[in-house]
Specification:
The protein is built from 7 helices and 36 strands. The protein is α/β, with parallel strands linked by helices. The chain folds into 2 domains: about 220 residues, Alpha-Beta Complex (Spore Coat Polysaccharide Biosynthesis Protein SpsA, Chain A), CATH 3.90.550; about 210 residues, 3 Solenoid (UDP N-Acetylglucosamine Acyltransferase, domain 1), CATH 2.160.10. The structure holds uridine-diphosphate-N-acetylglucosamine and calcium ion (CA).
Length: about 450
């Protein structure tokens, strides 16, 4: 039996007060609906049906590359009407799982449990108990505890309003049953909508069982309707990720002050101070220390790397035992080999720096190839751009770059060269030489300063 997943994402999301469709708002840097798609993929579903409506073209564009069928719901006439749009795509012998583009934190394990509970001719329904069930569809159970109906808040009696178990909307059932029941749907209710929830009553009255599984974590099944809920779920998601890291042996100075927006692979005995933001694919080797307020994006850090406070590392590889910062910026295409030291206010772009080399202070190294044990003095600038093209600077092993040096690229400085402070290097320098370009110092005795 194949699994088809139908994701409802056609709602307007007016309470977001946004020009961006609701399901494209991000949690942990990823659109809400993408979270749901990724979770559905984990279940091994090859058949995914996305019901879109308002602003749907934008959703399609952003969520591109996803191999799913896009089904347009022209008018939002209710959740049942939304699912009806996908019916022509479903095979009768499929089992169908219904998810929501705005319920991002649903876990694959919960859904697996739900699907395993589908009765042979019935429905498996995910419910949740809420201290304030106002607004939600209430779960009506009989004296034996079997679910017999869902009553929407607006259609419920005063007595039913007291029920604290509510419908999450998430359910699993067989496609043939779903088709039969949705075929009988009417919109004769308080909201004049076609309610998906009516299939519960239909199943029950046909004598089929409806298994209600109560979700343990109410935030896992909470939908996003406004930016307050968006922020709440963001924090919850971040706290789950922080717990996961700590249980894998990572020290977090404050688990509520780290943000992970991507996939991270962090080894044991890494320690991360407050305010870190990890984006994209980040891997950090054991013993590494990340200082306060660092941003790491798509980068690989070796073992025992130190990234000091307020540094930014993007699309770079940092080798074992290297240190960066504080206040350093490592830009895309940078490779630092082992034991490299980059100090404060140093910017490195698209450069490779070999083992044991240092640039401790206030420098710009762009398009450089730097050998081993090179010392780059304070205020060194690679002049890599001529206004049209970028050029390379090569510093071979053991070069000593004096402070306030300009390296006008393209230029190659041979092994062991000493560059005197204040030099502007404009042509290649042979190995072992001293290179100096300075006007000779003059002294004028008893200098009289100008007077007003
Ligand atoms: C629905 C359930 C309710 C449940 C609640 C949980 C029904 C009739 N009611 O109510 O029992 O407690 O969710 O949040 O199902 N959507 C479409 N097309 C439509 C209508 C809705 O795609 O025509 C999508 C929305 O984008 C949203 C979801 O379905 O993601 C739920 O719709 P919403 O209008 O929020 O349903 P509720 O009235 O909250
Ligand atoms: Ca809702």
């Amino acid at each position: 039996m194949a699994l088809s997943v139908v994701i409802l994402a056609a709602g307007q999301g007016t309470r977001m007060r946004s020009s961006l469709p609701k399901v494209l708002h991000p949690i942990a840097g990823k659109p809400l609906v993408q979270h749901v798609i990724d979770t559905a993929r984990k279940l091994g579903s090859e058949s995914l049906h996305l019901i879109y409506g308002h602003g749907g073209e934008a959703v399609k564009e952003i969520i591109d590359g996803e191999d799913c069928s896009w089904v347009k719901q022209e008018q939002q006439l209710g959740t049942g009407h939304a699912v009806i749009q996908a019916l022509p795509n479903l095979n009768d012998d499929d089992s169908v799982l219904i998810l929501y583009g705005d319920v991002p934190l649903i876990k694959a394990s919960t859904l697996t449990d739900l699907m395993e509970a589908i009765p042979s001719k019935g429905i498996s329904l995910l419910t949740v108990k809420l201290s304030d069930p106002t607004g939600y569809g209430r779960i009506v159970r009989d004296s034996e505890g079997a679910v017999t109906a869902i009553v929407e808040h607006k259609d419920a009696t005063v007595e039913q309003h007291k029920i604290d178990e509510v419908n999450t909307g998430i359910m699993a059932l067989n496609a043939s049953d779903l088709k039969r029941w949705l075929g009988q749907l009417t919109n004769e209710n308080a909201q004049g909508e076609y309610y998906l929830t009516d299939v519960i009553g239909m199943a029950s009255s046909e004598g089929h069982s409806v298994v209600g599984i109560i979700a343990a974590d109410e935030l896992e099944v909470e939908g996003v309707n406004n930016r307050i809920q968006l922020a709440k779920l963001e924090r919850h998601y971040q706290s789950l990720q922080a717990l996961e890291l700590m249980s894998c042996g990572v020290t977090l100075s404050d688990p509520s002050r780290i943000d992970i927006r991507g996939d991270v692979d962090i080894a044991q005995d890494v320690s991360i101070d407050i305010g870190a933001i990890l984006k994209g694919k980040v891997s950090i080797g054991s013993g590494s220390v990340i200082g306060a307020n660092c941003i790491l994006e798509n980068c690989t850090l070796g073992n025992n790397v130190t990234i000091k406070d307020n540094s930014i590392v993007e699309d770079a590889i940092i080798g074992d035992d290297s240190s960066v910062g504080p206040f350093a910026r490592i830009r895309p295409g940078t490779i630092l080999k082992e034991d490299v030291h980059i100090g404060n206010f140093v910017e490195v772009k698209k450069s490779t720096i070999a083992k044991g080399s240092k640039a401790g202070h206030l420098s710009y190294l762009g398009d450089c190839e730097i050998g081993e044990n090179v010392n780059v003095g304070a205020g060194t600038i690679s002049c890599n751009y001529d206004g049209k093209n970028k050029h390379k600077t090569i510093l071979e092993d053991d070069v000593f770059v004096g402070s306030d040096t300009q390296l006008v690229a393209p230029v190659r400085v041979g092994k062991g060269v000493t560059i005197a402070a204040g030099t502007t290097v404009t042509s290649d320098v042979s190995a072992g030489a001293l290179v100096i370009s300075r006007t000779k110092q003059r002294e004028i005795a008893n200098w009289k300063r100008p007077k007003k």
